[in-house]
Amino acid sequence: ILLNWNVGGKQNEPHLTTCLDYVNVPTTKLANVIYSSVCHQSYAGGKEFWSELNDYFFMSQLHYGFAEPAPACTLVSHLFPDKIGGRPAWLALDHLPDEAQLVCCSCSQPMAFLLQLYSPLGDDREDCFHRMLFVFMCKSGRCFFNSASSSESFAPSSVPFRVFRSQMAKSNPYYSLTPPDEKQFTPEEMLDAFRSGALPAPNRLTPLCPICGCRGTKICANCKKASYCSRSHQLLHWKLCHKRHCPNYDYLDEMFSTNPFLLPEFALVSEAAAESDIVNSHTQSDDDSSDTEAPAQTLTSVDSAEFAALETISRKETKEELIFSQFRQVMKVEPDQVIRFQRGGEPFWVSTTQRTIPSCEVCGGKRIFEFQITPQILSHLKLDCVKEPSPDFATVYVFTCENSCSLPRTVQAADGRTRTIEYQEEFVAYDPVP
């Protein structure tokens, strides 16, 4: 890549042009990087510029995710689905997250499964031949309201979401080395295959709660067959059906059923973003950012200290609203997008909140952006409440270990016993609606 300097009206003002004969890179992609670099005062020849240029070309392409209806029997573990709602299609079928990891930090109620993304790392990592990310969320709008009002939407202790990473090699204890059969099974055929062992049943190694599909550690005292993640789910299941069918309980009988706790289920369909979409989103953000200052104040009846405080608040609120307006404009490119995926890329920030993304607690590596969830997903979840606040957010950000450090791993507890980890918690945060 050859970078040339032109005088653009002011002495030493950089304007970059390219000769792309040496590498086969679309001009729009390079133009986007150069534009972004110049706007952030990273000049050609500078360390920051080349770092950004390198990161751009080697990060994954931006993809949109869309919710589409699909039969539940096509969204099961051995098919490695991208999906929203329903019960999780666990990747590792053993050593699932425990109950304490899946309760809301604010209300202590079980979180609902929100979505999962299949995100393998390619041929460079044999131990990541299969790789899946799982996101859970609290269904109580009060928990969103409380964390938003406390301005701690990036503090892990207040975020009503959790995200977990699971990964494994092609040769693993759970799945065949051959690709899954593309034959379309009926639900009855799928259940027969689970029972016969022809396909890996989701509850083969770990008892699952019939309400949410998560690990069940509390056993029904009567039938000794049903397992639950929590007392609340045991009571709900008893009222729904277990009171009538307790002696004959079989988890697989309810595997494709719905209940009031589960979120509506959809397939997540991916589509690569057009290069023009990416360039335009950066351009729109930068063009609008020049207007972020608030209008001149005319408050003359307050003293200088009060005026300064009011001016600071006004500027911040105006900037927050403007940034969210930019975000809405970007969403209009693909109005139905519920996911923006770009591992190693940059999220579209929706606020000016100062953010500290913690390093991986296991390997010490930095965490990088992987995807964000847009507020359009809320229209599919049917979470509107009449008597209390409904869950709401501007966007949800997911960051994962850049090394995607190896799983499974074994840890030793204080009592000397060992524990196998196949689901590593990663970092998730969100911005409330301004």
UniProtKB/TrEMBL annotation:
Highest taxon listed in the record's lineage: Eukaryota
Coiled coil regions, renumbered to chain: none
GO molecular function: zinc ion binding
Keyword annotations: Metal-binding, Zinc, Zinc-finger
Record flagged with keyword Metal-binding: yes
Domain MYND-type: from-to ranges: 209-246
Disordered, as annotated region: 278-297
Gene3D superfamilies: 6.10.140.2220
Range of residues in the leader sequence: none
Pfam families: PDCD2_C, zf-MYND
GO CC, any one term: cytoplasm
Protein name: Programmed cell death protein 2
Organism from which the protein derives: Schistocephalus solidus (Tapeworm)
Organism taxonomic ancestry: Eukaryota, Metazoa, Spiralia, Lophotrochozoa, Platyhelminthes
